[in-house]
Records
---
Amino acid sequence: MSTTPLGDARPRVVKVAVALPVPGTYSYTLPDELAARVEVGACVLVPFGRRSAVGYVVGLEAPAPAELELKPVQDLVGETPPLDPAMIEFLLWAADYYLAPPGEMIRAALPAGAFAQDSRRVRLLDRAARGRNAREQRLLEALLAAADGELSERSLRRQVGPLGGALVRLCERRAIERFEAAATPRVTVRREDTFALARTPTDEERRRLERAPRRAQVWARIAAAGGAPVALSALRELPRARAHAIALTRAGLLARGQRERLRDPFQGEPLPPHPAPVLHARQAEAVGALESALSRGGFAAFLLHGVTGSGKTEVYLRLIASARRSGRGAIVLVPEISLTPQLAARFRARFGDDVAVLHSGLTDGERYDAWRRLRAGGVGIALGARSAVFAPVRDLGVIVVDEEHDGSFKQEEGVRYHARDLALVRAQRAGALCVLGSATPSLESYHNATSAARLTLLELPERATPRPLPTVEVIDLRTHRPDRDGLLSAPLAVAIEDTLGAHEQVILFLNRRGFATFLLCRECGFALRCRDCSVTLTLHRARGAVVCHYCGAAAKRPDACPQCKAGRLAELGVGTERVEAALRERFPEARVGRLDRDTSSGPGLRRILSAMARRELDILVGTQMVTKGHDFPGVTLVGVVLADTGLHLPDFRAAERAFQLLEQVAGRAGRGSEPGRVLVQTYNPQHPAIACAARHDYFGFVRAELAARAELAYPPVARLVAVRIDGPDPTAVRRVAEALGQAVRNACARSGGAGLSVLGPAEAPIARIRGRTRWQLLLRGAARHALRAIAWQAVRDTRTPARVRVAVDVDPMSAL
Ligand code: ADP
Ligand code: ZN
């Protein structure tokens, strides 16, 4: 320890979570020049293997003598640590729980592009390699031309266009390799000039200013601030403000400075007023319970079960206002923020600039600025989708998870986590309140609020407006044959006509986009399928294309059957595009809009939603995007074109999801002054999900469904861990899956069973996606710790070739 001066107790070894898909943390020594500046949470550059990697300091310790052989940290990235120690601890907990690489978990919590994110790069291995198609060839040529035969994937894409499977295939042939490297941050802090009063002008200077009225205006505005710096952006409407201010600075009248300029996409956007209504009795009760828990302090968790339109949002607004009055911050998680601009508008109307709305349309720069505003405490409320659970809100008092049942809270790519579950843990660690709200709580939350008593149940059984919940009529398609398009039964068609006649609005829901969900040859029976995925291709008629909904591959619609070259292709399976076309034909006077992933990216989405809100549309057709929390008072009829679509998926949550969708879409009807009606077309009227939704019988449904889950030992009664195996070579994937299955079974046997059962390994229901064969293995049991330990052990002990990928999914949401 000769390098450590006597008496210097500073730790000289740091534990670093490297932002790469590697387990655990790594230790490094701290060189003297960095020793005083590195803290827990700091972002550093460290040597890793044959290269450098970005990592985050998760611990500081005194070195053990053996550790003096460690490699030193290379550099500190950014002066202030992006995360505080409490956040680091929370993220390490999450990484451990989800069996995720800690560095990747930490990176998931940071705004994209900031803090020297790693960048994916590609390196040429074989200079003599040739491409097997034009794209591969272009890719190889771009690399040959690059310095050191190396490029980032980003610039490769810029040069070559979409890379498709070319990267993967060339990697497999060992012509190239992919790796990650530290890059300089793409996002930087933006600064702007400020000017402040330096001294009072002399009489002579005053006379000169009088002769230059424009300059005098700039002077007057800055002088009015009484010595406080005024940003140039605040003087935007004055002509040539900058030139005048600089001239005044040269004359010694003003002092020039600089400050950070925060990008705010809402800047200057007017706020429609949204006055707080008088709470109805049940709302007041709920708010009372929440406020007293808040003032008691410490962690508490609630399930706010309120029917659609019962005023849950108002409860959140009141609770957050309370928290803000005592200086505490709040996080509000919503499923898809861009889908519900009304909700963001309500928060902004109530809290103004104290809300940072984190939606997917933000640029990296805007996101980074919102993040820094929250961290600095300038803004106290973060509103956003799942990743907002990591928002650096100061002195966190409340986390709300609205529509907590929604599947979008589960992150399914990279680090897999569930934002609702993490919200509970974060609130617990922060001594904050967590409120889960929904009209159709997930079975997990219902279970936690009843048998497990982990959540306090608050109920809003009635709507906030005088209108009751809409009546739901089930139309049995076995007796009411739909019209020749296979779309509308007579009762639904009549109901639409009546609603249009009364100048009210209609929502039609069908959970499949496109025109026809498959093309089938009438001669030979051939169905058009994706080359890389085991699904049929969907016809998108307006594009004249057949598209794979899993990998996005698109091709021109063939005229004749590709197999027998003769037969005509029948368009089967209805999608939203077909519903829209049929409605236009049948109701030529009606203004019809469509809301699905094809019509609604970015500005298109806002346009359709606001047209609907302004009643410039009579009928809105859409996928589950129409079921989300929209509040369109003009809608009095909701039609479900086919309730059966998701019912028979080979997934234990299929019924729960079907029920939630039906109840949510029904909740869009009758929110204004006129009562609502819901018509549900189905071939399975007796199915509990449909029958219970028709009666708005949430409790009936969950009781029946919980009993079924208990019988099969599925969540929430038991816990699941899924191990997913995929890769391009079916045999290799199967071998790894079988080896993992054996390892898991052995581990179970060693632990004496421990009430654990193993399902599979088996091919996944969708056996191939993007050219990769998929297998899975499910571990099921009551003791979640044992489940995770066994899964982890098996994955570590099983040899996996580089081309096979193994991912552990703790608490999986789907088994497809
Ligand atoms: P939820 O979030 O439960 O779907 P909202 O909070 O959106 O319900 O409320 C539904 C509608 O009722 C909104 O238009 C809202 O402005 C209105 N509302 C909520 N609470 C009250 C109240 N106490 N008095 C009158 N209107 C209310
Ligand atoms: Zn595909």
Note: DSSP finds 23 helices and 33 strands in the chain.
---
Amino acid sequence: MSDIINILPDSVANQIAAGEVVDRPASAVKELLENALDAGATAIQLIVKDAGRTLIQVIDNGCGMSDADARLCFERHATSKIRRADDLFAIHTMGFRGEALASIAAVAQVELKSRQQESELGTRIVIEGSDVKEQSPCNCPTGTSISVKNLFFNIPARRNFLKKDSIEMSHIEEIFRRVALPNHDIAFSLHHNGRLLYDLKGGNLAQRIAGIFGSGFSERLYNIQESTEPVKLFGYVGKSEYAKRTRGEQYLFVNGRFIKHPVFSTAIERAYSELIPERTYPSYFVLLQVDPSRLDVNIHPTKTEVRFLDENIIFSILRAATKKALGQYSLATELEFDPSTEIDFSPAPKGHIAQQPTVTFNPNYNPFRGGGTPRGDYSKRSEFEHFFDSSTSPADDCTVERLPLEEEPVQEPATVFTATPIGYQNRYIVTTLKSGIVVIDQQRAHERILYERLLARSGAATAAQQLLFPVNVRFNAADSEMLCELMPELSRIGFIISPLGQNNFVVSATPADIGDNGLQELLEQTIDDYRNSMMQKFSDRDKSICISIARQMAVKGGTVLKAEEMQRIIGDLFSCQAPNISPSGRRTMVIIGEEELGEKFKL
Ligand code: ADP
Ligand code: MG
């Protein structure tokens, strides 16, 4: 029998490997940008033509390559970044497989120019489909410039597979953002077809976010940071009121590398539960720093998946830190009632004030306003060192239990003192606290009160109040079916509804605050709202029903309230567990503190 096994020539092997590493222009962009970072560049330019089809060029001011290395770097498994298998567990660079340039050179026409600082002349090399066409000395600045032309020129099938320019370009821009965000101390620019799309100076993370997403973005974010043994984290999470219908700006990085980590994303999103409407998503930009030996980035060369040894603990820390950020800046932490004004607001309901931990923070701190000194050094850690070396929070400070929103209500009668409130535009209630003047949105506040009341009574025997005269209601077939499905939840919160057949029902009891008015509309709207929120995977039926009913029952903006009614809202609101946020995640009140007033009266 004759032998049939061949060793493939390198050019073919490289083309096959290229299929994995370079599947579209954006992946070549990623490899080239990462190489520039690994070379210690402090300024990196990306120039693209026709969404990368015609040209992808990356110019860096990094360490450059010697003549021999410039030739060698296009060989497969040619890398300067690891030598031994052991090195795999202590990777500090973006690349280490030595595959990228070999793969790119197999499927494009590549021109490389590179010079090391100490050499007078640089080297220029031209490669086409793995064939070296030319190598000669050249004049060029320190650093490296790689031009990748006519990607997939020798694989027409793949070239035809590319999507239209707008799509390929949006992939390239996304890669650019993922690289530029964590490496905020490095200058980046991006040109497409001669147009400058991004021009980012080196600075801190906040400045980088502003550079990419616009300076107005700063208003939407809270700072988040935590320093513990398995992970240090730093970044920004979006304020709940800016949660969006799509998963937009959600960026998670580990050791300067963008990752997708559904578990950690859930950790962040969980911290928002109840603060934002269902099916909306917060923005976040979170940098994790983890000992490289506690991660496995080796799963797939181009994938963004990473395995963490300490996944569970990092999950808790991330969630707690996000909650802390949201709670820390929420106005509830500032609440202190002013006992000097004598008007006793009573009887306060059997509610309670959750004891908020006192947190000191500078409400005027705005990381986006000036201040950041761009660092010239090439260190992905400097941000963390800057924040954590002087950190006052010890590792065990970060416990989920102590965070405000998860706290069990303290079983004490609430003693609430307040000056006589006044209404403004039949929409806001204005009163004073020890810490300042508080302006409450009457509708949102009332939604919060009703929501917590409905939830608190849920399941209790007293939840239902018999109606003197039962009310008949009738729905279309789809709503009837949905109503039947929601029957257990509705009965838990106090509705007693019995089917009479043919889509007719009789309501014989309702939750205490509701009564018998407009029951038909109330139930229809509740069914509708529920249907809208149903798509969400973790929708809690009880909660979404309570949110819907609370919204419908709440006094509306524009309703004239009597002083007693305003007082009742104030008292009830401050007895809530999360008084500063409406059930759908909107701000219920604004406090103008003494200091802020002082500022305003300075002149
Ligand atoms: P890897 O990054 O996995 O080592 P690459 O194929 O991306 O593999 O690059 C091969 C080698 O070429 C790198 O290890 C590095 O030594 C060198 N190299 C690539 N790009 C640059 C650059 N922009 N500046 C300096 N050296 C570079
Ligand atoms: Mg590389």
Note: Residues 31, 35-36, 38-39, 60, 62-65, 73, 78-81, 95-102, 144 surround adenosine-5'-diphosphate (ligand 1) (CB under 6 Å).
